[in-house]
From TrEMBL:
Protein name: S8 family serine peptidase
PANTHER family (alphabetical): CEREVISIN-RELATED, PEPTIDASE S8
Residues annotated as catalytic: D171 (charge relay system), H202 (charge relay system), S351 (charge relay system)
Signal peptide: 1-27
Native organism: Noviherbaspirillum pedocola
Length: 415
């Protein structure tokens, strides 16, 4: 292993500085983050998967799993850490371990020494990510949906509804019991803690924009109301109302979405460049999965994962001129959607532009399952980066009882 580059040591030092203040205060009960701690991800090469009676989810047996844990425990003991958690990453051929330093003040130097150990593939800090929220038909709220007017949603649904397409929502908990989401969530899992996924605002709103039920006489209609949602809780709602995630929880959810065969993955979040997540996104892209990420317009590259080459970066207007070449524009201001407890509300921000595009991708994938992510992005691009849903359907070879609206700009959205 090479020693950590200076930027990674700085990142770990910043994590140590923040852990006892803002991050610690923001942590919700049950979240694997404690005030005043720093966590390190350590990757070990996993044994080749093979089939045997005691095989676990990674494809290797209890003996192999225990052998990996013994190696990790030895690393922790030799370098001044304690073993906190672990998760197999068969998609990458790795086993990921979470370690905490015994002496937090020496975290950076301890991590650098551990990274040189030949038993280790690579190490990185557990980094923080945040949701991209702004501050702050017969369905009764349908006329208020920007997509109803700008994308002529009811006419799009005469051609496609996303039937049979799986969309993974990697976010905070989704209220699968919400009347407008009832029956829409095909699978839900919690990668944050050992509890049930629960119902949280951000994930529930994102899910509603993608796949809320249509024509049930309440609320809204999703962009792809017949799509199958995978509600993967990798983020959590903070006490201040914001939504946070980290490298470890996101990696577990990403791998699950890949292994489950999700056709579209929605990531309404942003943070720093992250090697573990980047390699998982590479694997998803290699399998033809369409990746959608909210872009942070305050960052030159839109933040990560929007900056990943395979990601379709999405924001609401206006955006800086420098971002126009690679960021698609979708509705992002005052968007009505589902909220926990059978409620509805208006949401704004790039977080809620992204699920519009994820829903549209479900429509396109229904019509042309072989459509590549690159082809899908080209099909959706309209004037000045605005998503033209009608034109997208026509470009994949489907007639639509709608008129193309590329010349009309979506509503502004604050990020």
């Amino acid at each position: 292993m090479k020693p950590w580059p200076r930027r990674m040591l700085i990142a770990l030092g910043l994590a140590l500085t923040l852990a006892g203040c803002a991050l610690g205060q923001a942590a919700a009960p049950g979240i694997p983050l404690e005030p005043g701690t720093v966590r390190l991800l350590v990757m070990l090469k996993a044994p080749p998967p093979h089939f045997r009676p005691d095989a676990g989810p990674a494809g290797y047996g209890a003996a192999d799993w225990n052998a990996q844990r013994r190696i990790a425990a030895g690393l922790a003991r030799d370098h001044g850490f304690t073993l906190a958690d672990d998760w197999p990453m068969p998609v990458l051929g790795l086993h990921c371990f979470v370690l905490k330093p015994l002496d937090a003040k020496r975290a950076a130097s301890l991590a650098n020494a551990l990274s040189r150990d030949l038993r280790v593939e690579w190490t990185q800090p557990v980094q923080r990510f945040h949701a991209m929220e702004a501050d702050g038909s017969s369905d009764p709220l349908y006329p208020l949906q920007p997509a109803a007017r700008l994308w002529q949603l009811s006419r799009l649904h005469q051609t496609a509804t996303g039937r049979g397409v799986s969309v993974a929502v990697i976010d905070s908990g989704v209220d699968a019991a919400h009347p407008d989401l009832e029956g829409q969530v095909a699978w839900e899992e919690n990668f944050v803690d050992d509890g049930k996924p629960g119902a949280e605002a951000h994930g529930t709103a994102v899910a509603g924009i993608i796949a809320a039920r249509e024509g049930n006489g309440m609320g809204i209609a999703g962009i792809a109301p017949a799509a199958r949602l995978y509600a993967l809780r990798a983020c959590w709602q903070q006490r201040d109302g914001g939504t946070a995630c980290d490298s470890f929880t996101l990696a577990k959810a990403l791998q699950a979405a890949i292994l489950r065969g999700a056709q579209v993955i929605n990531l309404s979040l942003a943070g720093p460049e992250d090697r573990l997540l980047r390699e998982l996104l590479d694997q998803a892209a290699a399998r033809g999965i369409k990746l959608v990420a909210a872009a942070d317009v305050q960052l030159p590259d839109g933040g990560f994962p929007a900056s990943h080459p395979a990601a379709i970066a999405v924001a609401g207007a206006p955006i800086p001129e420098a971002m126009r070449a690679r960021v698609l524009l979708a509705p992002a201001k005052d968007v009505p959607s589902t909220l926990p407890g059978a409620r509805f509300g208006f949401v704004s921000g790039a977080s809620f532009a992204a699920p519009h595009v994820s829903g549209l991708l479900a429509l396109l994938t229904q019509l042309r399952p072989e459509l590549t992510p690159r082809q899908a992005r080209q099909a959706m691009s309209g004037t000045a980066g605005q998503v033209d849903a009608c034109a997208a359907l026509q470009r994949v070879g489907q007639a639509c009882a709608c008129s193309c609206i590329a010349s009309r700009a979506p509503d502004d959205g604050r990020h």
